[in-house]
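Hi, here's the filled form for the chain we discussed.

Project: internal
Contact: R.S.
Residues: 704
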Amino acid sequence: MCCEIKRRFLLLYATQKGQAKAIAEEVCEQADAHGFEADIHCISESDKYNLVTEKDPLVVIISTTGTGDPPDTACKFVKEIKNKTLPLDHFAHLRYGLLGLGDSEYMFFCNGGKIVDKRLQELGAQHFYETGLADDCVGLEIVVEPWIDGLWLALKREFSSRNIKEDMSNNLSAVSNGVSAVTVDPRMSGACSLDSEIQHLKLEDLEVKATDTLSQRPANVHSVLSVQNTEPSLDRSVPPLSQSTLDIPALPPEYIDVQFQDSTGQELSVSSLISDGIVFHIPVTKAVQLTREDAVKTALLLELDISKTSFCYQPGDAFCVVCPNNAGEVQELLHLLGLSERKECFVCLKIKQATKKKGAALPVHIPQRSTVEFILTWSLEIRAVPRKAFLRALVEYTSDAREKRRLQELCSKQGASNYNSFIRDASICLLDLLHAFPTCRPPLNLLIEHLPKLQARSYSASSSNLFQPGKLQFVFNVVEFPSSPSRLVSRKGVCTGWLAELVEPMLQQHKNSLRTKEEKSSTIKVSIFARPINTFHLPSDPSVPFMMVGPGTGVSPFIGFLQHRQKLQEEHMDWKFGETWLFFGCRNQDRDYLFRDELRSFVENGTLTHLKVCFSRDPPAAGEKKPTKYVQDNIRLYAKEVARVLLKERGCFYVCGDAKHMAKDVNDTLVDILSTDAGVDKLEAMKILATLRQEKRYLQDVWT
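And the returned structure, exactly as it came back:
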């Protein structure tokens, strides 16, 4: 009997930080077990596929970056399909399914996927499977896992439908040629319609266990749980989960072979980590703590000397800082993995000859001739929250039966809530797992296969090159992750913690006012590169009025805006300049009012027309009728002015800062203001706001 021919579908992914790629690879791995062949490509690899001539079903997995943009790898694709000269039936032959990844803490949730989905339909493509939108705020897997599970039935249904259409076409062709079609496929009869075929597939899907899951029962319930009434934790299970049969993912095939070689030669430069763009190694010339010691958060300002480089920027531009993992965590990881004595060895990577992984390729983010220590320091995101596929792989390198079982639970469908509570929501990383499961000792190749690339961190410029030639300033809060039951030690942010430690001597010098002329020429350097896409800029016409909303460190790009505007006003006294507004807020006026003196100076010299501030933790001022705690409260107080600037004077509105609460609240406030002023319902007001965004008059630079 002939082997069943696997049915092909085209699988495209567009990723920014590796999430979409990892999910696409998971789909690719599962496809084989379901009788399909996934032809997988990055959406940027346009030379390897052609949607114009594509005949098979298309599956797209795409993330969102920034405040709602498609990932960089999809920019060319999106530009091409947005071509207005394309006919409306350009993709009429395409049948597709799409999975979008996003974060609902950002206003334009899953917008990268929505843009592609909408445009494909506008060009005639039709769904064979409903679009899934996965939310990283609550856990991607909540949508991703059932979406993948349902994909196989949808593909079966799609191919079944195509077979029926082909049979109909063949029968019609036979009749038209005068041939009597005696034999009729049962699927063609009215009694056995396509709907019954679909129902049959559904029943079949329920009856047969998918081959990509394994049933696991604890060999000894008492060895897993000695105390029945205890609470679950990262390393401890309780009934009913501890007594359940588990559906766990298929074991991801290993595909990288690691060989260690004695190190000889020069150490790699961080420039080798960046494949696109020029990396600049810039001296830090100034470091200042902007907040008081008793403030809730510590905000630092760093100044870089770019005068001897070709690096250039505009106010509002963002740039990326290349940062390493924490040195102490790297050494701890080396110790736990038994690699301390090999940390200076070169690592030679090859694809395993017998691997079952389709399309296996060496990671491009690990330079050739890297040492073990370099890889763990500069190449891999060792703080990444482990995906379930990684947990499944770790099971095979865990010797204790109880620990094995708990890892299986955490990656199983039955243990989804445990995974969310103790791993995803707790921001657990590999180090935490190795401490919680002491007999787990994965080899280096497993880390390389499952940990994502260590991403450079993005920061907004808080200065103007016109105002301070040769200088680039930026501001950040030092991120703090407190200890928890799952994470026994507190940690600082990967980049902010590293920067704070790096400039600590300069901060002490500044605090003690002991800096000499020689000490100012610091040898401390950081590596940066420009971010290619950014529209968060001042209006090109200086007469256009604009409003800025920037609480906390969100004010930093607006300092650059105002510096630039001040210099333009000094140099072009005959120009007409529009009015400027800044809504600023912080917790306490005396502890974390950033750039207080600079902002007052901007008001005094006429650069800043209106400065509206609020302090959420300070008591209301004496005689204050309506206390304003947050920036959106002040925006409501000046609703008429906001509507005038946006609607009558066609001004711009900028928002910078926290996406989770502030940006959403400001957006809702704007909807209310526009609804009231224009006399329309909230839906129409939202459309007005969407139009402002399309016109690049409502701009956001927000983060979580």
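Let me know if anything looks off before we file it.
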